[in-house]
Amino acid sequence: MNEQSDNGLTRIQRRNREIILEGALTAFSVSGFRGATIDQIAGEAGLSKPNVLYYFASKDEIHKTLLTTLLDMWLAPLSDIDPEGEPLQEVLDYVAAKLRMSRQYPRESRLFAYEILRGAPHLTEILGGRLRQTVEDAVEIFQGWMQSGQLRTVEPHHLIFSIWSMTQHYADFDVQVRAVLGQGHDPFSEAQEFLDDLYRRLLAP
């Protein structure tokens, strides 16, 4: 049965697009945007070059689609913050979610970081639009909690920036972290304990 989704793609077409994006993630992670080629992406995906180009017109389109999908994933935990939840626990849960994503999706984190370092040519409109609005919505929640005395008052934008930095570091600089810690350490488990204590001390009223 060749069922179609809401966007008009069949199940097989959706699966092939996902396979191509997964292959592209590997190719971009190994060679960067400039170094990766359609041939390399096709090889990683196990498809022919014409098949890849049937779904995506160019390497640029593949890269932009992949980054947009990644951004949706990155923003989900921030969007999930519940204004009716227990404030400190909501923040700690967000920190834990971001650290968990760094552990589970290190290639994705590094690809996103690389795009930002390049000046975000594929994400400029999104960063100033959807990303900014999602952050502002969270900032409004945090400010409400701070004004009511449920969280210690800090600058909420920089609170979010610090969480991004403190969690994504373990993906983007994984080799450095493991080299410094040496064998016998689980960086993510140790980081979770440290960050939970750090933000609890910072934000507890």
UniProtKB/TrEMBL annotation:
Organismal lineage: Bacteria, Pseudomonadati, Pseudomonadota, Alphaproteobacteria, Rhodobacterales
UniProt keyword list: DNA-binding
Boundaries of every HTH tetR-type domain copy: 14-74
DNA-binding region: 37-56
Record bears the keyword DNA-binding: yes
PROSITE patterns noted in UniProt: HTH_TETR_2
GO biological process per UniProt: negative regulation of DNA-templated transcription
PANTHER family: HTH-TYPE TRANSCRIPTIONAL REGULATOR RUTR
Name of this chain's protein: TetR family transcriptional regulator C-terminal domain-containing protein
MF term (GO), any: transcription cis-regulatory region binding
RNA-binding in keyword set: no
InterPro entries tied to this protein: Homeodomain-like_sf, HTH-type_TetR-like_transc_reg, HTH_TetR, Tet_transcr_reg_TetR-rel_C_sf, Tscrpt_reg_YcdC_C
